[in-house]
Amino acid sequence: MVDESLMVQRMSGRKLSGLIAATYTPMTATGDLRLDVVPKMVEKLLHDGISGLYVCGSTGEGMSLTTPERQSVAAAFVEASAGRLPVIVQVGHNSLREAQALAAHAQEVGANAISATCPSYFKVSNTQTLVQCMKELASAAPETPFYYYHIPMLTGSNIEMPEFLTQADDAIPTLVGLKYTDTKLFEFQRCLELANRQFDVVWGCDEMLLGATATGARAAIGSTYNIAAKLYRQMTLALTSGQLDAARKWQSQSIEMISTIGRYPFHPAMKAVLAMQGLEVGSCRLPLESLSPTQTQALRNDLQAIGFFDWCRAPAESGRA
C-alpha cells in the first residue's frame, strides 16, 4: 500500500528542467516499428544537450500505435536512456482501460513519469469529469509521477487548467503538474503560481518558448528540439545573460524554421529533416501523409535558404545571434 501523503511529499520536489524532446517513433517505409534506431536517437539528443524525453506523444504518433507497440516503444527509450535523463511516457487513450495498461507498463519498465491526454472522441466538457478520468488512469501507476497533457487543439477539451489543478490536487496523489500545450501565457503563469508554485508546469509551444521562459518556465517539451536544440539553448543562454535582443533573434529564427517546415505535412517533414541530419527514422503512419522525393528536396532547399543547417550547428557556448 502506497502512503499517499508521503507520495505527494516525495513527488512535489521533483521538477523537470531544460529542453525535453518529444521523441519521434522510428518506422520503416511500410509503417512497422524500427526500435533498433532508438539508441542512436537517444545518443544524438544527449549530444545536443536535451535534458529529457517525452515518448509516444503527438510527435511520436502514440495515438496511431497499438497498445503493445506503445509499450515496446516506451521500453526501448527507457532502456536506451539508461538513467541518464528522465523519460516521460504519454499513456493517454480513448479507452481508460487501455490507458491504465499503458500506465502500469510504463511504471514497470522504469519510466520516470507518465503523462496523458484526456479521452477525445467523447469530449470531456467539465473539470469534475476530467479529474475522474485522470484519477482512474493514474491509479494504475501509483508510484510514478503524473503530468496531465493539456492540448485543447487536439482533444477539444478547453477546461481551465488552474481549476483542474486545484480540484485534482487532492484527488490524484501522483499529480505533479502539466504539459501545457496552448498559447495562453496568462493561464500558464496562473498555473505556475498556483498554490505557492507547487506544480511543475512544462511549456509545450516551441514558437513561444522565449515568452514562456520570461514568464517563468523551467522546462519545455517540443518537437523541434529534436532538430534544433542548439538554437533554443542559444536563445535561453542569451536571455539569462541579459542579451534580450539576441534572444529575440534566436526565437525569430525558430519561428521562421517552424513556418518553413509547416508548409509541408509537419511531422513527416520533421522526420525528413532528421534524415538530412543523418538520423533515419522513416516515415509516418496514416492518417499522416508522407513526403514525396520532390517535397523532400524542396524542403531541404527552403531550409538552406533560411540558414537552418548553420543554426542547428551553432556552438552552444555562444549567446550571440
Automatic annotation (TrEMBL):
InterPro entries: Aldolase_TIM, DapA-like, Schiff_base-form_aldolases_CS. The keyword Lyase applies. PROSITE patterns: DHDPS_1 (PS00665). It is found in: Cytoplasm. GO terms for molecular function: N-acetylneuraminate lyase activity. Keywords: Carbohydrate metabolism, Cytoplasm, Lyase, Schiff base. Pfam families: DHDPS. It is an enzyme of class 4 (lyase). Its EC number is 4.1.3.3. The keyword Lyase applies. It comes from the Bacteria. GO terms for cellular component: cytoplasm. PANTHER family: DIHYDRODIPICOLINATE SYNTHASE, N-ACETYLNEURAMINATE LYASE. Belongs to the DapA family. This is N-acetylneuraminate lyase. The lineage of its organism: Bacteria, Pseudomonadati, Planctomycetota, Planctomycetia, Pirellulales.
